[in-house]
C-alpha cells in the first residue's frame, strides 16, 4: 500500500514535470530585457525564446516574431530546441508507460510485467529530466557570461526569464519521479532475490519404484 502511494505521488510529480516542460519549451521567456526609455512609444520589455522573440510596448501592444531560420541561430539555442523536444516526448512516453505499470491501476497484467513497465517509465522520466536540465543550464550560462561581459552594451544584456526557471523545476520533478519509480521496482525485485519462493520437493515415481524394487530383493 505504501509503495502504491509513493508511485502515485511520483506520478503527480511527473505530471507537473510534463506540463512545465511543455510550457518552458513553448514560452518566449527564456531571455528578458527590461529597457525603459524616455519615449512612451519605445519598447519597455523584450523577451527571447527558443521559437520566437516577443516585445511588449508601453502602449500595451504585444508583437512576436518567429525564428524561421534554424541555421542562423546560435548553437546553444539549436541544442536547447532539440533537447527540450526530446524531453517532452520522453516524459509523455513515461506517463503512458507508468499508467500501465502502477500498482493502483488494473492494467499491465501480472506483477512482474507491471514492475518492468514502471521501471521503463522511470528510465524515461530520468532521461527526460536530464534532457530538460542540460539546455536550461547551458542557456543560463550563456546569459550570465553575456551579462558579465564588459564589451556588451547595457541595452543588449539580458536576464534569465520565467521559462528557464520553469525548465529547472520541471526537470527536477521528472528526475525525482523517475528515481522513485525505479527504486520502487528495484526494491521489489531485490526482495524476490533475497527471499526466493520455497520449492517443495516431492519424491518422483521413479524413486518410489526403485525403492520398492530394492525391498523385494532383500525379502
Automatic annotation (TrEMBL):
UniProt signal peptide: 1-20
Record's subcellular location: Cell junction, Tight junction; Cell membrane
Coiled-coil features, chain-numbered ranges: none
Superkingdom field: Eukaryota
Keywords: Cell junction, Cell membrane, Membrane, Signal, Tight junction, Transmembrane, Transmembrane helix
PROSITE patterns: CLAUDIN (PS01346)
GO-annotated cellular components: bicellular tight junction; plasma membrane
InterPro entries in UniProt: Claudin, Claudin_CS, PMP22/EMP/MP20/Claudin
Transmembrane regions listed in the UniProt entry: 84-105, 117-141, 161-182
Pfam family membership, one: PMP22_Claudin
Topology of the protein relative to the lipid bilayer: Multi-pass membrane protein
GO molecular function: structural molecule activity
Role according to the record: Claudins function as major constituents of the tight junction complexes that regulate the permeability of epithelia.
Family as reported in the entry's similarity comment: Belongs to the claudin family.
Protein name, per record: Claudin
Native organism: Poecile atricapillus
Amino acid at each position: 500500500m505504501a509503495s502504491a502511494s509513493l508511485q502515485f505521488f511520483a506520478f503527480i510529480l511527473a505530471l507537473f514535470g510534463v506540463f512545465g516542460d511543455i510550457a518552458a519549451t513553448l514560452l518566449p521567456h527564456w531571455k528578458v530585457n527590461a529597457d525603459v526609455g524616455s519615449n512612451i512609444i519605445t519598447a519597455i520589455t523584450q523577451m527571447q525564446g527558443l521559437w520566437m522573440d516577443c516585445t511588449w510596448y508601453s502602449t500595451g501592444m504585444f508583437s512576436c516574431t518567429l525564428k524561421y531560420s534554424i541555421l542562423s541561430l546560435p548553437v546553444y539555442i539549436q541544442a536547447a530546441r532539440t533537447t527540450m523536444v526530446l524531453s517532452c516526448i520522453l516524459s509523455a512516453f513515461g506517463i503512458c508507460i507508468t499508467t500501465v505499470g502502477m500498482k493502483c491501476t488494473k492494467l499491465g497484467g501480472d506483477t512482474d510485467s507491471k514492475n518492468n513497465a514502471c521501471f521503463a517509465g522511470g528510465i524515461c522520466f530520468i532521461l527526460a529530466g536530464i534532457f530538460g536540465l542540460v539546455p536550461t543550464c547551458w542557456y543560463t550560462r550563456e546569459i550570465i557570461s553575456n551579462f558579465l561581459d564588459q564589451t556588451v552594451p547595457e541595452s543588449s544584456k539580458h536576464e534569465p526569464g520565467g521559462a528557464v526557471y520553469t525548465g529547472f523545476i520541471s526537470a527536477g520533478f521528472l528526475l525525482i519521479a523517475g528515481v522513485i519509480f525505479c527504486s520502487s521496482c528495484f526494491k521489489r525485485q531485490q526482495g524476490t532475490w533475497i527471499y526466493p519462493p520455497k520449492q517443495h520437493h516431492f519424491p518422483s515415481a521413479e524413486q518410489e519404484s526403485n525403492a520398492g524394487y530394492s525391498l523385494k530383493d532383500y525379502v
